[in-house]
Inverse folding.
């Protein structure tokens, strides 16, 4: 893991006015107009296992130009429910830094890791705003950003994280990196290899998470040859296999599928569009007694 801070970001911007994520170019240091530091006053925490956010959320520096990033409503819900101010939040596949921005807004400390240096710089760009109007009397959050591999979090100590909230790439669907890091990027892997490597991600997540705390991941399914591949449940098995227990399985409804629906409608298809993802919330058991209590939510094979 290589740490990059704001000074590194400023130096990077002197020579690079933009980053390229996949095939998308995103400008850095573009003048930001931060109209609000949170969602509307109508926001409330989710109470069921079906989450739907027709408006993805655009407060602070959140944007939707990083393909595949998750709505800030998701990490906001997770952070508010499972942590308190001053706790440590980890997103080991942080992408554009949505989770870190929410941690900063909510007074939590956070660590973000991504295999792609351009993504790290973009996350630092999104973190470049003030929160004093929201937390005038609170201390500043500590936010650390690293270029690194979710399978080897060597700068993070055992049992040190209060919440993991992350959105892994799907197997060979959206490519997030190129050149020298491509071979290490999970988004490039075929399904069989992807699942092997995701188990390594799960092992590291289990190592760094405190006992009794939770790890939340957003993952969806896919198709091949017009047939359904339950990718999410295969990933779930990887996390159960390393010792986690399943606390929640939340269905997240997908929106903004207009273009996909138009393409699908022009073809003669005998299958349904996938319009949901899973948010699995895994708990690291506090002890063997707790593991026995929740044995039916644990590895069953």
């Amino acid at each position: 893991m290589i740490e990059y801070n704001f000074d590194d970001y400023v130096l990077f911007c002197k020579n690079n006015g933009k980053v390229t994520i996949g095939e998308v170019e995103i400008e850095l240091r573009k003048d930001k107009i931060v109209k609000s530091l949170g969602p509307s006053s109508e926001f409330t925490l989710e109470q069921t296992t079906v989450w739907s956010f027709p408006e993805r959320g655009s407060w602070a520096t959140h944007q939707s130009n990083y393909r595949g990033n998750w709505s800030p409503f998701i990490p906001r819900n997770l952070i508010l429910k499972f942590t308190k101010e001053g706790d440590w939040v980890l997103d080991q596949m942080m992408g554009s830094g949505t989770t870190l921005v929410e941690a900063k807004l909510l007074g939590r400390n956070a660590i973000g890791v991504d295999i792609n240096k351009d993504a790290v710089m973009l996350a630092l760009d999104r973190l470049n705003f003030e929160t004093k109007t929201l937390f005038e009397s609170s201390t500043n959050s500590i936010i650390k950003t690293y270029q690194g591999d979710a399978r080897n979090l060597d700068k993070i100590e055992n049992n040190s994280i209060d919440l993991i909230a992350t959105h892994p790439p799907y197997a060979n669907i959206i490519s997030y990196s190129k050149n020298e890091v491509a071979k290490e990027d999970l988004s490039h892997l075929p399904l069989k290899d992807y699942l092997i490597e995701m188990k390594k991600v799960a092992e590291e997540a289990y190592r760094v998470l405190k006992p009794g705390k939770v790890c939340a991941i957003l993952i969806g399914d896919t198709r091949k040859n017009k047939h359904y591949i339950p990718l999410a449940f295969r990933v779930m098995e990887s996390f159960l296999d390393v010792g986690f227990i399943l606390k929640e399985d939340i269905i997240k409804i997908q929106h903004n599928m207009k273009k996909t629906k138009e393409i699908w409608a022009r073809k003669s298809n005998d299958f349904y569009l996938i319009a949901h993802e899973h948010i699995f919330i895994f708990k690291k058991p506090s002890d063997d007694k707790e593991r026995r209590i929740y044995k039916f939510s644990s590895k069953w094979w």
About this structure: Helices lie at 6-15, 73-82, 98-105, 117-126, 191-208, 231-241, 258-265, 288-293. The CA atoms of residues 117 and 267 lie 39 Å apart. The radius of gyration is 19 Å.
